[in-house]
Design brief:
eight-stranded mixed β-sheet; globular
Amino acid sequence: MATSPRKEEVNDDVAKAVKALEDTKAGIQGLVHAGIDKLPPFFNVSPQVIHDHPTLTDPHLHTEFQFPVIDLKHILDPAPHKEIVDKMRSAAEEWGFFQVINHGIPQQLLKEALDGVRRFNEQPREVKMTYYARGNGAVRYYTNYKLQTKGVGWRDTLACVMAPNPVPDKYPFVCRDIFMEYSKHVQRLGEVILGLLSEALGLESDHLKDLGCLEGYAFHCQYYPACPEPDRTLGLMRHRDPDFLTILLQNQIEGLQVLHRDYWVDVPPREDALIINIGDLLQLISNDKFKSADHRVLAKSVGPRMSLACLFTTDLQPSNKVYGPIEELLSQNNPPLYKGTSIPNYLKTYVSQPGNGLSVLKL
């Protein structure tokens, strides 16, 4: 009579398979090139995780589910400026996500930035593997932040620290120039968005900037190849961003979902739009006025899906500065909901969590 393998044997087999993938330094793209038609078992995600909330596939069915789009075209005119601030306040409070159009970054530059992500991931393995690394570093290429964790996502990542101390000579040659050019534009846009969010909090427009929310940022470039079994895994697990603000550029393949009113809502791709989302740290210092929303990326049978996320945070330089709720927002009726914390302490808690959607801020 055949016997089932012991749990220890299964775990050992998974650990060996994970190590074998890690040793190739070829990422998910290496599996695709090998022609696999079934997922390695450590990519499997339980149906309960994938279907933890119902999905609203057509957000236009209900007004309250229409994904916010904010036009920045007339931002310098007083009347439209106030309307933009009001819309941004509503989106930051109710969604934690919104799209911006007429943002000032040329369409051709957006296309070239995504082309840079594609060029890096589609170059020969021998070139990419020289960047393969985990932990800290100005440039890192890897498959999943927590590859050893069961239920990892179907994606590869290139992470580049862009500020406060850019290191152009370390960025991959195939995307170096475009990343440097896009960096200048996205930094300016980040300053505009944080200025509007400061006003939405009832503060001076430079308040969030003066707190240091723009001092550092990194590009996280995600590459999601076509998945052979997209119903058995996710591209990116449910999470919230560990930063103040994220500016996301994505190509035209759907997959990004935001949890809104207990529904997963698809974020519709728009060639002319950038996606903005509130991070945990902005939720903390706004004392829950703005919300950091759970989001995820579905695996798809078509691809590659590509995105370039610019994460604004201060963890990119050593700092013991303590961040807590902004004093000007507090009152007897609005007491502080969080204790102050340094970014390193917050991140230590963040990376130790399983990514199940529980807010790290409440721990």
